[in-house]
């Protein structure tokens, strides 16, 4: 009887989780980690050129980041779901914070490569954890999945707004120092790490199917990829993400080439990303059309927007290139 009373007292003294409050914290943290990078992204090409890097070197450095992210994304996701999402989220945010402090002092190609590899590694750690927490806490409040869809849409809108705001802030700082802009990226990731520490990891962990971690990871990966919807979603995201890379990194060099001040380059990026929701609306409207038509429409938009800017680059036509963001 005494033991039962002690257990009851211990249970009643346990702090209760405020799911709504934690859900808001998760959304705010996601906004910081998403928009933080855009403080410096529009001017990175200018920075790389300033330390003697050509377009080939820039391409190699970005390939190293993408390769690192590709190699570690699945293993880090496995360890997050198997052991602790919170731990990897916090380590990832702190790691990216430290990486951009290091990046701000980069003086040559090899320091940039080191920074890109570290960035890819720590992004693999924290990538996807916020979305997992958003799903877990939303379902605790509404098990039908309706709240998760609502919060996902809300987060997407907030991320676009915060991204545009981050670009504007970065433009202002760029007038004083590009290195200061790169250093400033560490601030939102520091805030995100502090917020991540307050989120309790209440989600269920995946059960081990094999004693060896590598084999267990592969078994779980195969199990997930058997679902056709998830498999094609992963493929389409990966291909779409990589295809847009050359277009994005060509934007800043083209704009500076025709005389757009560095600190104003961010306007082109705001237009580019700001048109993405309209592109999504067009895709939704054309979902009933044949696959060939769905592919043709975005390609036609990119081509028509890019040709004038590439063939006759000047202060007027260059802004058309930003329309390819649609």
Structural commentary:
This protein has 326 residues and is mainly alpha-helical. It has 15 helices and no strands. The longest helix has 30 residues, at 228-257. The chain is globular and about 60 Å long. The termini are far apart.
Number of strands: 0
**How many angstroms separate the termini?**
68 Å
General shape: globular
Structural class: mainly alpha
Mean pLDDT: 80
What proportion strand? under 5%
Q: How many helical elements? A: 15
Question: How do the helices and strands follow one another from N- to C-terminus?
Answer: HHHHHHHHHHHHHHH
Radius of gyration: 22 Å
Most strands sheet? none
The low-pLDDT segments are 10-14
Q: Helical proportion? A: over 70%
Descriptive keywords:
single chain, 326 residues, mainly alpha, globular
Condensed summary:
This protein has 326 residues and is mostly helical.
Helix/strand layout:
Layout: H1 2-13, H2 19-36, H3 44-50, H4 55-82, H5 85-103, H6 109-126, H7 129-141, H8 146-174, H9 178-184, H10 186-197, H11 213-225, H12 228-257, H13 265-274, H14 276-285, H15 291-311
Helix pairs in contact: 2-7, 2-8, 2-10, 4-5, 4-6, 5-6, 5-9, 5-10, 7-8, 8-9, 8-13
């Amino acid at each position: 009887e005494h033991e039962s009373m002690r257990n009851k007292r211990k249970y009643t003294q346990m702090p209760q989780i405020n799911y709504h409050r934690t859900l808001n914290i998760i959304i705010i943290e996601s906004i910081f980690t998403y928009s933080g990078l855009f403080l410096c992204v529009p001017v990175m090409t200018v920075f790389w050129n300033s330390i003697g890097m050509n377009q080939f070197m820039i391409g190699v450095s970005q390939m190293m980041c993408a390769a690192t992210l590709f190699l570690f994304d699945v293993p880090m996701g496995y360890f997050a779901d198997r052991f602790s999402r919170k731990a990897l989220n916090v380590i990832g945010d702190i790691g990216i914070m430290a990486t951009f402090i290091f990046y701000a002092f980069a003086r040559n190609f090899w320091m940039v490569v080191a920074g890109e590899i570290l960035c890819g590694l720590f992004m693999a750690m924290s990538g996807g954890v916020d979305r997992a927490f958003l799903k877990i806490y939303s379902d605790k409040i509404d098990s039908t999945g309706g709240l998760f869809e609502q919060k996902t849409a809300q987060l997407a809108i907030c991320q676009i707004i915060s991204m545009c705001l981050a670009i504007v802030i970065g433009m202002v700082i760029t007038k004083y120092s590009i290195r200061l802009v790169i250093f400033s990226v560490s601030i939102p990731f520091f805030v995100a790490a502090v917020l991540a520490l307050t989120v309790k990891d209440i989600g269920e962990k995946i059960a081990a199917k094999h004693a060896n971690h590598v084999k267990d990871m592969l078994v779980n990966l195969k199990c997930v990829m058997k679902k056709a919807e998830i498999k094609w979603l992963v493929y389409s995201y990966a291909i779409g993400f990589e295809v847009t890379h050359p277009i994005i990194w060509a934007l800043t060099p083209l704009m500076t080439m025709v005389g757009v001040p560095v600190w104003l380059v961010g306007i082109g990026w705001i237009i580019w990303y700001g048109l993405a929701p309209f592109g999504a609306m067009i895709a939704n409207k054309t979902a009933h059309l044949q696959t060939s038509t769905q592919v043709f429409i975005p390609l036609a938009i990119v081509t028509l927007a890019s040709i004038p800017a590439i063939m006759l680059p000047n202060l007027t036509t260059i802004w058309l290139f930003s329309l390819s963001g649609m």
